[in-house]
Amino acid sequence: MSGRTALVSGGNRGIGLAVARALHAGGDSVAVTCRSSPPPDDFLAVKCDVTSKQEVDDAVGQVEEALGPVEVLVANAGITRDALLVGMGEDDFLDVVDTNLMGAVRLVRRTLRGMVRRRHGRIVLISSTSALSGSSGQTNYAAAKAGMVGFARSLARELGRRDITVNVVAPGWIDTDMTAALPEELRKEAAGAVPLGRFGTPEDVAATVRFLTSREAGYITGAVVPVDGGIGMGN
Ligand code: NDP
User: Fold this and answer.
1) I need a surface site. Which of 13, 76, 84, 137 has the fewest CB within 10 A?
2) How far is the CA of 226 from the centre of ligand 1 (A)?
């Protein structure tokens, strides 16, 4: 396992940082993209806003130059802009799709050539249970995250013969900055609806991502793996 180059977008905090740490602990050479502040850890950090094709191209180029071709890609960078559709501006819809879905697409397209050449690769996209069950106030986010599922499954069919797996992880409620902003009352109600009775940790998600990138997961592709405390009961 050691010696692989792994790239995690949005690896400066939250779930992305936990994923970067888990891959590093498994022996990978890890690079993270960050848009604002760098990660607290000593990973190679490259500046990149995933809504810019140029920045994605440059960032992956820097990683390849420093660590070699990317063998493991985790497309994690994401945002929410919640509102009911009747009150949602078109920009809020487009920004969420551009970051969550198109950001992942740009990263995959830029790293894919190296994987195809090596006839090996591991791609994991971070989606959400909202993609599968829908979520009031999140039509933009759920549409973008559901788009990632169709993208991943189509790509899995295109790349399977080259030993490149493409999987999706769908977290439920996870304790990060993204959910910290929710009112305490809503957090309590949300946790109460989770069969395991709590929000998950970034490390809960990271452990699943790490497994999906492992040699042992080599016969899993096109899967959507929920890490949601049972809220979707496997869906
Ligand atoms: P955070 O808000 O803690 O972190 C989001 C990360 O995405 C940050 O690193 C942020 O960078 C990065 N990011 C956002 N926009 C861009 C952009 N345009 N270009 C580059 N990087 C960007 O969120 P989480 O850690 O909670 O979320 C990580 C992923 O998990 C997201 O895709 C999210 O949708 C998904 N998820 C989270 C859930 C949760 O409950 N927390 C549930 C289901 C899915 P910066 O620091 O520069 O802002």
Assistant:
1) 84
2) 17
